[in-house]
Inverse folding.
């Protein structure tokens, strides 16, 4: 089964040297599932010619905001609508979660509560999953027909499904413990307030449920089984 990865940004240079780029993190998360992968760097205007170029699709995170004026955003929004019309499975994470919401009629803005950084517990319908977060922006209003399936601290719309073919997540299942550590130390200082970095450091070694969510993403890509 071929998974098309739509890359919407690049990991920080220092982290790429150690961990690889964003598509590499997802390939590692979904290892062992008999997937083949192809990446299109849509952030650089490298787009697929159509939705039939992959069996299922995944949109990565990005440093960009979905409301910013970047050339790749309008055609990406149209491609999202094309994927939805095709009925093929689509997963979005962080920026991917947000751009799908925007493309389908939702509202995304900088959250007035500020940054969410590090490990948080998310409620998936009574089941708690611990995942790493790294964002200021949030999906504040869901598109018509969207259904929230998970919430977290100061992040109401943490995971959303659209019909039976789109599943999106605000936190990062692809960010494991080591990556989370390096984000805190190499990306955080001077960008994230010190008190939030201290909180993230204090929780950085606690276990994560990234593998559990990764397995659900894989199952969704294969079968469109709703994760919650």
């Amino acid at each position: 089964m071929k998974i098309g990865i739509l890359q919407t940004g690049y990991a920080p240079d220092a982290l790429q040297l150690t961990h690889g780029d964003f598509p590499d993190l997802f390939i590692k998360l979904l290892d062992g599932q008999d997937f083949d992968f192809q990446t299109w760097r849509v952030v650089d205007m490298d787009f697929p010619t159509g939705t039939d170029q992959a069996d299922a699709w995944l949109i990565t995170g990005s440093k960009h905001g979905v409301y910013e004026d970047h050339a790749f955003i309008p055609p990406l929004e149209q491609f999202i609508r094309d994927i939805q019309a095709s009925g093929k499975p689509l997963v979005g994470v962080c920026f991917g979660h947000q751009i799908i919401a925007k493309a389908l009629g939702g509202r995304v803005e900088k959250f007035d509560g500020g940054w969410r950084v590090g490990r948080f517990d998310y409620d998936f319908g009574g089941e708690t999953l611990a995942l790493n977060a790294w964002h200021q922006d949030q999906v504040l209003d869901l598109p018509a027909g969207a259904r929230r399936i998970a919430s977290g601290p100061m992040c109401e719309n943490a995971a959303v499904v659209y019909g039976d073919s789109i599943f999106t997540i605000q936190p990062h299942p692809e960010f494991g413990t080591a990556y989370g550590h390096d984000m805190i130390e190499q990306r955080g200082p001077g960008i994230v307030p010190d008190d939030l970095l201290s909180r993230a450091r204090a929780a950085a070694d606690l276990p994560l449920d990234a593998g559990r969510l990764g397995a659900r993403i894989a199952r969704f890509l294969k079968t469109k089984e709703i994760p919650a």
